[in-house]
Amino acid sequence: MSLGQPSAADLIGERTRAEIFALVLTAGPISRTGIADRLGLAPSTVTRLLPPLLAGDYLRETRAVSTGPGRPQRLLRVNADRHVVVGVKIAPTHVAGVLTDMGARVLARAETPLAECSPATALAVAAELVTTLLAEAPTRERALGVGVGVGGHVDSRAGSCRYSAILGWREVDVAGPLAAATGLPVVVDNDVNTLVVAQRWFGGGKDVDSFAVVTVGSGVGCGLLLDGALYSGASGMAGELGHLPLEPDGPTCGCGRRGCLEALASSGAVLRRLRRCPEAADCPDVDAAVALARGDDGPAGRAARAAFAAAGQALGRGLAGLCNLLNLHKIIIAGEGVTAHDLFGPAMMSAFEEHAFSEAARDCRVCYDPVEDDLWARGAACLVIRETVRAPLS
Ligand SMILES: [Zn+2]
């Protein structure tokens, strides 16, 4: 959005401005003093970073009101009607999207199933979904852009998916075709990163500066917020917790290597282990495995409980590694597999506590969040809002 490379100080300023906007969005109306207190900033920093947000009409000030002792203060609030934004999540079986206002409030939602998820099909469906959602907007002129979450290795600068095992994609330009089809700017990121932004703004990450979202289910994903900033790594691949090598002679992983966490803790790993039990050899899917584990007193039920516990144990070792390395405040377990946490959680927590170094486990809260379906897409919309308010063009 600007010419030339911004300096490190500019980048820190932009990041802080996005944090200020997010705080006003989640905790506003709030005074300048309140912002400085909550974010640990000097009042002069808040005063320096606010003008572009006010000039661009992204934030507005109320009339001075009395908020306690001292002089009445003007409060800041988000001008939610300034723009609408579309957030999209591309999954192997469907494309889900939401239309939000500038306050990331969901105005409309839509979902289209995918018969197959080739890039051409999925991106055409995504473009149609954007058009459908924008038809719900008061005026299309106010559409700011489209945020897209894709599972896998995403190069967000290039707007492309380098590799996605779950979609079977390699070197796919996501932003180009979608921008051409919709006429809007497109921001692309890893889907777990969109969830990290949503958790930071609306969920369990609101009150902590360093946390991880770990998704469990058909794969194991991870997104990181470190010292208040989304961490993507040198080339966008940070957080590949699923491919942490845990057992050199373990089962083969989807990535072709052996003994990765994902090969030990995914729903496929649970099923593989369970089917070794003759009484459960024909268990069709993970839902049936959950039903066996919760309701069967025989050998199949015992095998199912053991399979979930083994997955939990591997996950707990992975989480301990994550926590030992990064000293996180919190780990939020999400994803479609989280609803079975009664089955894998106890083994996960004991392995986590066993392998966490020193006080790392005590300092880190682990919680489960069966994320609402549209939070992923809402997080993708937040990416666009965040990019805009970092360095607003007024
Ligand atoms: Zn792997």
From TrEMBL:
Keywords: Kinase, Transferase. This is Putative NBD/HSP70 family sugar kinase. SUPFAM superfamilies: Actin-like ATPase domain, Winged helix' DNA-binding domain. The keyword Transmembrane helix does not apply. Belongs to the ROK (NagC/XylR) family. One of its GO terms (molecular function) is kinase activity.
